[in-house]
Write a structure and sequence with these properties.
Layout lengths: L1 H45 L4 H5 L10 H7 L2 H34 L7 H13 L7 H10 L6 H25 L3 H9 L4 H12 L1 H17 L2 H6 L7 H6 L2 E2 L2 E2 L1 H21 L1 H8 L7
Antiparallel strand pairs: 1-2
Helix pairs in contact: 1-13, 3-13, 4-7, 4-10, 5-7, 7-10, 10-14
Length: about 290
């Protein structure tokens, strides 16, 4: 009896220790999450303040919709929002249309030289590492000569050029995880390369393609440097619009917070809707038997 009681006490003690460890770990995780989320929360709340209230860092205040109404009623804000949506939709779509066939050709295609695919793939990766500031002056001069400066088409071309290598890099890793035997069997049965890509490769790697598209869309949505230097008022995007709240007379904190909240909502909603596909796509090939 004494031994049974001792064993029971030891088991209870071990359970309590496990529960205590899990509780402490959960508290640490919640604290870290709150630390990262607090700036977003504070920005969201500041959008419901007046400019006088926003200057004072207080969580308790009299909320008002005045700032959001002022931002949303600004026709310039609506125009910049339309420009951002246009750039994201076209830039992401065209980058994927170019990146998917390129990645498929690098993985399953047959080039004349054996090491050609590796060299081309390395070129795409090195292009991703190129910072936009390194090519700003050549782009600026070229765009001026071709009348593409202050033109939505010029900004779209720049986004496609910078994001297509990213699409190739991401989708290449997803295509590489697909079994090549099924494509060889399909080729023997008379399936063309185009049919193999459209009917087989894209459906099998759709979660990876979705995650790649989401990453590219967020990249274009948040991009500021190229939009600021290559576009003017009629064709600029939301990040450029938000930067112009800072003028000589000071910083409009409330309006900046409201416009920032509006600008991150599409990315948050899109990420929330596709989070399962994003997580699944980013973890494809991480664990192999």
């Amino acid at each position: 009896m004494m031994q049974e009681r001792t064993i029971t006490q030891i088991q209870r003690s071990m359970r309590l220790k496990k529960i205590l460890k899990k509780t402490i770990l959960a508290l640490i995780i919640y604290c870290i999450a709150l630390t990262y989320f607090f700036p977003i929360l504070y920005m969201f709340l500041s959008g419901f303040k007046t400019e006088q209230q926003a200057v004072k860092p207080a969580l308790l205040f009299q909320p008002t919709l005045q700032t959001y109404q002022k931002v949303l009623s600004d026709p310039t804000m609506v125009q910049y929002l339309k420009n951002s949506v246009l750039q994201v939709v076209l830039g992401t779509g065209i980058s994927l249309l170019l990146g998917i066939p390129a990645a498929f050709a690098l993985v399953f295609g047959k080039l004349k030289k054996k090491d050609s695919a590796g060299k081309i793939y390395l070129w795409f990766i090195t292009t991703i590492l190129l910072p936009p500031v390194a090519v700003l002056i050549p782009l600026f001069i070229t765009y001026q000569k071709l009348n593409l400066k202050n033109n939505p088409l010029g900004l779209l071309i720049a986004y496609i050029g910078f994001n297509t290598p990213l699409a190739v890099w991401l989708i290449h890793s997803f295509f590489s995880d697909l079994p090549k035997d099924i494509f060889e069997a399909a080729r023997i049965d008379g399936c063309t390369r185009w049919q193999q890509m459209v009917i087989m490769a894209i459906p099998l790697a759709r979660t990876g393609i979705i995650s790649a598209g989401l990453i590219i869309a967020v990249q274009i949505w948040n991009e500021f440097f190229l939009a600021f230097n290559l576009t003017g008022n009629p064709s600029a995007t939301l990040p450029v619009y938000m930067s112009r709240f800072r003028e000589q007379q000071g910083l409009f904190v409330a309006q900046l917070s409201a416009s920032s909240t509006i600008s991150i909502l599409p990315a948050l909603i899109l990420g929330w809707m596709s989070q399962k596909a994003l997580v699944k796509g980013l973890t494809m090939g991480a664990v192999k038997e």
